[in-house]
């Protein structure tokens, strides 16, 4: 097996599409009333999937975290420390929830955190060099 991508289960698809498209710049072509969004972001599959649709498909109910989701994060990388600060400010100006302002950590990474409309944590970080897999 190989990792193909990741997804988020969402309550308000319209709000989440607007956030990932308009605030973070993901290329999402689906309408705001879509029940599923599949897109490729930097070679990784990213999925927004309606929680109610998933429950219907699996014939189960699930418990979902309310407020900030401290179980996972989505990590976005930029090439420079300056870009961390710029992207953080842009995201917050466009409506992202600020969680941690840009900070240079002892391990050499500049990082910050925002949250999407449903409380999923998003890190914007850099080691001050282009990304190297």
Chain-wise SSE layout:
Blueprint: E1 5-10, H1 13-23, E2 36-41, E3 44-50, H2 51-58, E4 69-77, H3 81-93, E5 97-104, E6 110-115, E7 120-126
Parallel strand pairs: 1-3, 4-7
Antiparallel strand pairs: 2-3, 5-6, 6-7
Keywords:
133 residues; alpha/beta; Signal recognition particle alu RNA binding heterodimer, srp9/1; 2,3-Dihydroxybiphenyl 1,2-Dioxygenase, domain 1; 2 domains; four-stranded mixed beta sheet; three-stranded mixed beta sheet; 3 helices; 24% helix
Structural summary, described in words:
This protein folds into 2 domains: 5-58, Signal recognition particle alu RNA binding heterodimer, srp9/1, CATH 3.30.720.120; 69-126, 2,3-Dihydroxybiphenyl 1,2-Dioxygenase, domain 1 (Roll), CATH 3.10.180. The chain is 24% helix and 37% strand. The strands form 2 sheets. It has a 4-stranded mixed β-sheet. Strands 1-3-2 form a 3-stranded mixed β-sheet. By secondary structure, the chain is of the alpha/beta class.
Uncertain spans: none
Query: What's the total number of strands?
Result: 7
Number of domains: 2
Spell out the helices and strands N to C: EHEEHEHEEE
What is the fold named in CATH at topology level of the largest domain? 2,3-Dihydroxybiphenyl 1,2-Dioxygenase, domain 1
Largest sheet: 4 strands, mixed
Helical residue percent?
A: 10-25%
What's the name of the CATH homologous superfamily of the largest domain? 2,3-Dihydroxybiphenyl 1,2-Dioxygenase, domain 1
Give the quaternary arrangement of the chains.
Answer: single chain
Outline of the structure:
By secondary structure, the chain is of the alpha/beta class. The chain is built from three helices and seven strands.
